[in-house]
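Q: Second attempt. The first request was missing the SMILES, so the protein and flavin-adenine dinucleotide are both included now.
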Amino acid sequence: MRGLAVAGAAVVGFDPFTRSWAVTGSGRPLHGVPDLDGTLHTEGSPLDGAADDFGHIVHRRPAAVLRPGSVDDVVAMVRFCNERGIRVAPRGEGHATNGQAQVEGGLVVETTPLAAIGAVRPGGASGGGSVTVGAGARWSDVARAAIAHGLTPPVFTDYLELSVGGTLSVGGLGGQSHQHGAQVDTVLELDVVTGAGERLRCSPTRHRDLFLATLAGLGQCAIIVGATLRLVRAPETVRHYLLPYDDLRTFLEDQRLLAREQRFSYLEGQIAADASGAFNQYVIEAVAYGPPVGDAPDDARLLRGLRHAPAGVQTADLPYFAFLDRLAPAVAALKEAGLWAYAHPWLNLLLPGRAVLDLAGTLLDGLTPEDVGPGGVVLLYPLRREHLRTPLLRAPDDAVPYLMAVLRTAPPEDTATVDRLLAANRSAYETVRATGGTQYPVGSVPFGRADWRRHFGPAWSRFAEARRTFDPRGVLVPGQGIF
Ligand SMILES: Cc1cc2nc3c(=O)[nH]c(=O)nc-3n(C[C@H](O)[C@H](O)[C@H](O)COP(=O)(O)OP(=O)(O)OC[C@H]3O[C@@H](n4cnc5c(N)ncnc54)[C@H](O)[C@@H]3O)c2cc1C
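A: Got both inputs this time. The predicted holo structure:
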């Protein structure tokens, strides 16, 4: 059914003088809100939800939230907003940590209703294939659909309940990235609505400038409404290894060796504190894919030459999806303990491999368990620069950059601690930047426009040009603070 579907009020309009929305009965009359297949909410829980995110640090209340019934709704509302200079932000699962998907007094477009997963298409000499999905599809559902056909996206984030549009707008890094790059490097085509409200398909050969400005483009040029993803063959089972290390140098050297040799299909690492609070418990997490992707895992071959502590090695054979979804039980426990609702002033950095020992050593020396918080985690693992091909995913100029993530938690009402941790994030970022490192912009590093310009470096001028072309009125995603 088409028609004006405005929940929470009869009609809604935009006041160009106060730059805010007004509702008939409480303010000004409506002019020209388009007919919609979905719903435009102007009050209540949809707005409360859109004024929060996984960080629970920033709260900016939109004037309206669109739950689109179709891509046409996104086109219509973006055009409506564009004509009136109303800011717009798409929101997937709201797992950003610093208000990136929030927009004070503007429109939030929820992508969750755009979650269709198309037919899985086998094809390609290597036995892979492709699938076209809505931007609001979660990676867990994409994985399930592909695995039913013996296929899989090549790269996953650690947590699967993130939207496809949400991770493609940042990059999407995980343990498979040392072999396949980021999720953005595995996209064949995008279906987008530009900031000017034009729906376009783009790919490496069609509207290439838009394609490159959208992948890892932090929503600045277009809203992703659909994506065609490359698939590869999926293993049926995997062997999962946890390899403990006593010292940072050996841990990093073995990670680098494994990244270079690509012995494992998945490679990450974690660092925990010992009883004294020192972050010196290093564990490589590595996974070998079984048939039909690889041979049956052979411990002797896979672990040859590694210098982990022999005691404490853990191995487990798992169905492939159980491995991908391995965080689900921990997330359930964090929710149960109330820690999922804690503030998450996260720090995500990309370190140049040539300086990783010094940088990680310095950052870990300065870290206390209180700085990480209950249920918090420290990750450190290598990538390979040659596979990171998306220009806007800014990685250090180094053959083996490392992702270092300090995934902090703090009670949300303890704003003094949150502020201290945000300042610590900034300080860590500056330490890393001084050696050619970057931030991976999913966390909470205080960042200004000059920082962004420096962050994008040689990619800045094309990015700014794409912004002028595709979002000439600059309405999209102000929460990133880039333009
Ligand atoms: C528990 C947890 C684990 C994580 N693990 C990883 C990991 O292993 N690897 C990794 O790389 N990242 C990881 N992340 C970070 C995550 O990838 C990003 O925060 C991602 O953007 C979240 O997706 P979302 O759907 O929640 O996006 P949202 O938080 O809703 O949006 C994030 C940003 O993307 C924009 N955006 C959202 N949808 C679209 C769209 N359709 N088109 C254009 N722009 C859009 C928003 O406006 C906003 O600026 C993790 C986050 C959490 C909370």
